[in-house]
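Section 4.2 – Deliverable D4.2 (structural model, holo form)

The reporting period included a commitment to supply a predicted holo structure for the target in complex with 2-acetamido-2-deoxy-beta-D-glucopyranose. Inputs used:
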Amino acid sequence: MYQRRQQVAKRLRFYSAVAGAGFLAYLGYYLTKVCKTPTLVYRSGALSHIVRENCSSLIRAYYPPLWAFNTHLQTALGVLRGAAINAGWVRQLVPTSDGGQFALDWWQGETSSNVPPETPIVLVLHGVTGGSFEGTCKAMCKEAASRGYRPAVMVYRGCGGVELLNDQIYSANFTDDAHLAVETINRQYPNAKLTAVGFSLGSIILTKYLGEADSGHWEPEGDGIAAAVAISSPFCLESAGRFLARPWTIAWLYNLIIAYRLKMYGKWHHHVFKDCERLEHVSEKQRQFWTIGQFDERIMSKMMGFQSAQEYYQAASSLPQIPKIRTPILFLAAEDDVFLGELPIRQCSSNPYTLLAITSRGGHVAFLTGLWPFGQAWMDQVALDFLQAVLSHPERIAQIGTEVSSVRPHLSSVQGRSPRKSGRRSVDQALNMAAAALDRHSSMGNMGMATDPGSLEDLVGRAASLMSGTGRASPEPLKKISSRADAGRDLMGTMGRAASFQTALDSLKRSDSMSHGS
Ligand SMILES: *[C@@H]1O[C@H](CO)[C@@H](O)[C@H](O)[C@H]1NC(C)=O
Ligand SMILES: *[C@@H]1O[C@H](CO)[C@@H](O)[C@H](O)[C@H]1NC(C)=O
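Output (structure tokens):
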């Protein structure tokens, strides 16, 4: 009896030691590989200085939930997140000149009623088939209200209970309603600063709108938007779409789920789709679809007046709009986001009004944090910190256009470390990002390009020039990029620039061996 008890105790000790060691290994992995400072891509100037001084959440490590940092887990939990948040809204229907309508849902909380008319406003633009009912919207509005903003969600035509009145539906290319929303709010609250946060499809619309508004596409009326944040934006629908279209992958599952929600949208507004003249030649059979691609090809693009989904994707890409933006904007992207596609590395490192923050984890519109990740997310804090930092420095923001920047575009973390160390960090980050970009490209096989060869060349080239200035890269990232040299030459070869990639690699290796030799 006694002996048996001893045996059991021994076994228990053994198992708890194994579990303890396993947990420590897990914790070690979490702390070293999962929690990382976001990579920032920007052009040095007033905006990056303001972020360094007043937006500390962006320059510290991001800690995803210890037990749920996996991209799919985060994305799924992110969807559930809002269930616990009670929200009350006052709906303002906005009629459009073409006979349609969309809505502004104004958040009603104890802190947002009876606030003065000059209270700054946060306008939230939701994702595909979304609305103010979504957890992401509710959580962002709740946090914004608690920080003294007046939050509202723009609910697109036919979404979230807004009746669809004609065959002009919302899409990534359609910015007229965003323009009208901004005008309407500017008119209603002429003394309030207006800021905006876009999620997913909403951030494409927001980015496109800003590019158009800042380049004089519309007669300006009111002050427009003062600062913006675009979260989990698929910048290039073409590359993102190709990634989602590979059958039997988890990304494909997302595709089917969204397609199902689009189906529900079509079902609810059946009468509009049935009577739409532009869909005359689309047969009943063709109207059955299972994927986003099929919906975009057969229905969406035709309804918008495009020939094909590809034509729609090209028109709707926000990449060409980014260089035109003159409103401070933060793009927040997670490298593990399946909807990501190509990133605007080039565009953001040459426009002083834009800042791209890339985290290694975060999923799609999730960026959760904490052990119980159902409350406020890291993205809510970062977005509102950024908006606050911009709003509280109007004089410095006004300088951006006049700064004569002799500084080269930066790919760097704006951490205040010693120059040598931060130089090395930048090199490492550039190399790691180039390697990740190549991996993303390879994992897509022949499906298409997730990475713009130009930005890859930029990354490697910049790492090389940084190295010649500061000395060295860490061995790990250097090994990583060298082992992907073939993939790099292949990708760059599609633009006839395989040689320049090789030159950058060679010069990297040269300055590395020089720095070790000295
Ligand atoms: C921004 O940073 C500066 C410099 O660190 C500090 O003096 C100032 O109080 C900060 N402003 C806000 C609004 O946090
Ligand atoms: C796509 O958007 C642009 C800019 O807003 C607009 O000029 C163009 O007409 C749109 N294309 C279609 C087919 O709606």
